[in-house]
Amino acid sequence: MVEPARLGAAAARRSPLDALPHVAARGAPAPADFAALVATETPVVIKGLFDGWVALAAGRHSPGRLNAYLAGMDCGVAVPVMEAPARADGRFAYRADMREFTFTKRQAPLRDALARIEGLIGQENAPTVAIQMLPLADALPEFVRQNPLPLLPAEVGPKLWLGGAVKTQTHNDRDHNLACVIAGRRRFTLFPPEQVANLYVGPLDNPPPLSLVDPENPDFDCFPRFRKAMASARAAWLEPGNAIFIPKYWWHHVASLDPYNAMVNYWWGDTARGIERPNDIFLAALLALRDLPPGERTYWQAMFDAHVFGDPDAASGHIPTPIRGALGTMSREERAVLRRQLISAFQK
User: Fold this and answer.
1) How many whole angstroms separate alpha carbon 213 and alpha carbon 201?
2) Which of these three, 244, 268, 292, is where a domain ends?
């Protein structure tokens, strides 16, 4: 893991992030132990997890070597390319009106995108270009075969992130995230899920919702509550060969610290479907509860605190277990009945 004092000149200027507590680091877990690590719901840096990757050796050698390695496996699938003008200073964030982003999106041939990214290295006043969220199983299936990760099921496919010095504004994911750095250095700044009110997150209808605050240069006059978020933040400085596990819903700002960077990540865990998807239930609660009169809102807040987020035994322990119904631990059959009732209610 790279310490702040070892960063290059462009990334070494002092910032509030340099003094943050470090995310704990550990060696690679055995596959049997990885589930226990995930269950802690705590970010952790993992070393030595993918030392045998061909892609890591290429990335450590040079941008040209990694680009050639990737281009040699190209199946001709167009890849997602993001580009921000030089004035954005690499920040992938909102524009002033929060309706659009500072970057554009397009599809391009892989070889063209790789050549453009490499050609911009060292240029002054250059745009920031990146290939982001490329599904490698579809675009470069040979990459997946040559660079396996046995910790995760085969159906959890890797995605490639490669480009210039991108700064991705603070956001979170509905999945667990395992991010493996194969070229360049990255800094992850993490905030616990409960800090959402202190992060000044943008609108939900322009996903992904991003924090409006630049953690590298926070404006505490405009965003005073962000001080509370910073008090609970932690950071990780990763070099090639390091990985980081980020539990679902943890907010994270990601800064690529070199002119050329590459990372492979894996998302998994968002398996709920239909009426049981937490995000959809949250949106339904906004629709049904937020505009109720104060007394009704107080009632539903108390109901949620007692029966959803509180101790179920404390709230309903006085009811015999066989007849607790939805207030108790539901069997598969009881869940199915409740699911059908809700689907019928929502269709009215």
Assistant:
1) 8
2) 268
- pLDDT-derived band at 25 (thresholds 50, 70, 90) equals very high
290 shares a domain with 246? no
Cα angle 92, 270, 45 (rounded to 5 degrees) comes to 60
Q: How many domains does the chain have?
A: 2
- Check residue 43 and give its pLDDT: 98
- Written as six digits, the tokens of 113 are 């995108």
Owning domain of residue 60: 4-268
- Quick one: 191 and 294 in the same domain? no
Q: Which residues contact 174 (CB under 8 A, 6 or more apart)?
A: 248, 249, 269, 270, 278, 279
pLDDT average, residue stretch 2-9: 43
- The Cα–Cα gap between 209 and 12 comes to 28
Q: Are strands 91-92 and 167-171 parallel, antiparallel or unpaired?
A: parallel
Beta strands in 192-241 (DSSP E): 234-238
Q: Among residues 324, 300, 301, 299, which one has the least CA distance to residue 314?
A: 324
Closest CA to 255 of 5, 10, 6: 10
Domain boundary among 235, 268, 301: 268
**Cα–Cα distance between 143 and 158 in angstroms, integer?**
9
pLDDT one-digit tens code per residue, 70-98: 999 999 999 999 999 999 999 999 988 88
- Average pLDDT over the chain, rounded to an integer: 93
Q: Is 121 in the same domain as 264?
A: yes
Q: Is 13 exposed, middle or buried (0-12, 13-18, 19+ CB in 10 A)?
A: exposed
Tally Cβ neighbours within 10 Å of residue 49: 20
**Nearest 5 degrees, angle CA 216-CA 220-CA 223?**
100
The verdict on 151 and 169 lying in the same domain is yes
Dist. CA 289–CA 116, nearest whole Å: 50
